[in-house]
Structure formats: C-alpha cells, structure tokens
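On to my pick:
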Amino acid sequence: MDCALSVSAELEGSEDIARARALTRSFLADLRAVHGLEVSVRATWAIQLVVSELVTNARKYAPGPCLLTLKAGEGAVEVTVWDSEPCLPVARSTDPCRVGQHGLEIVTAVCRSFEMHREPVGKRITASVALADGSAGDEAGDQVC
C-alpha cells in the first residue's frame, strides 16, 4: 500500500456510539472491496470491539465531543480516540468475580499495540489491530474469544 487510508468522525452523543461502529464496518468493507486488502474475520470483530469500547468510554467519562480516527497501514488498523478528559484509564487487576469494567483488559488483549498520551487538552488513545490472522497480537485475541 502506497499511503495510509483513513477516516475520521467527531462524535457527540451516546447515539454516536452506534454511528462509530457503522463507520468502522464501512471502513473495513472498503478496505476489502475497494482497496483489495485482506481483513480477517478476527480483525473485523476485534476492530469493531476496540472502537465500541474506546468510544463508549470517551462518551461516558469525558465532557464534550470525542474524535475517532481509523487508519490502515502496515498490515493493521490503528484506532485512535481523542477526548477532553485528561485522566488516563487504568486497567483494574484481574478479578473473575467483578461484573463490568473489563473493557481496557479486553482491548489490550486483542491489540498488537496500545498507547495512551495526555494532550494539551484531554488524552489520545491509540490501539493497533492486525488485519490478517497469524499477525502479532492474534494469539492474545484467541484467548479472549
């Protein structure tokens, strides 16, 4: 691929979580149909999950809009979410009895890389998911299923 392919959206309300998932499905379908890239079933599932978790948390914990960017390149899709809340999320210790609040654990398990950065305003979280099976990060994804 000569250059990265990307799409971005500003998301404001809780109804935009569904819009983020729809944008993700459309982006992945275009990668396959228009650009001829291999996007495995596992990657499709994992990328939609990552988008859903990150956007849901941004809408839940940060005031104002959030920004979602999906970028394909180097055999992966980078999912980046910016929001106005400067506090970085912290993964809680493993507790099989805990109900809920497992999103960050799940996201980091299905990604080949995960980064969080404070910005001058808010924070930016970037997760990278391999497009093809057998790529880095796939082993972790198998454990979550």
